[in-house]
């Protein structure tokens, strides 16, 4: 069922589409939300319990801050591509869609990596630790969904160059970050970290912990190249807060 102009105006009790700020169409058997292209000032949308599969019409909802899509027919997390350009989006409920797949952690990390401005995902508050971890465990989505051969929430690439590949999305990025940390630092114009500092761990730490820490650092260094000034400033502020928290903890322990 297609959401019509008349239905939107009636539900929102508005005289024109530009005046609609909130829209609740919970359980309305909707499959087509093309009308959202004409809702530039919408702030809160509730589309839970419908049959929606395409989020492209939401790209023009630049004032959207809350989006509820629980229990729809969103088959691919690549639909997040259409939400990445919404600067005010803070609340998203996407649970119970096919795109959530069989791995809850991978799903949540991927959503947060692509929508780092979220404050709440699936009715659960987002933490700074999760946002940091999402840079490592999440998959960056850079293209819209292929809309075919979808399984477990991940759309198969239609590029012939991807045929036969068994690697997970984003695995090339992580593997390159693990192999050439010094090269990454040189490309970023950073002073190379001495090996003794880079891998200085207490004797109690296992090889697994040491490898994990190195992997996280390498991934972050690689991703820094993709950030603009605003992104780098955000990283700087986050790092400053984390350092202050660690310093405060150390003082309390002393």
From TrEMBL:
GO biological process: cytoskeleton organization
Biased composition (Low complexity): 168-179
Record protein name field: Cilia- and flagella-associated protein 410
Region listing for Disordered, in residue ranges: 147-181
Organism: Campylorhamphus procurvoides
Gene3D superfamilies assigned to the protein according to its UniProt record, in alphabetical order: Ribonuclease Inhibitor (3.80.10.10)
GO cellular component assignments: ciliary basal body; photoreceptor cell cilium
Keywords, sorted A to Z: Leucine-rich repeat, Repeat
Domain of life, per lineage: Eukaryota
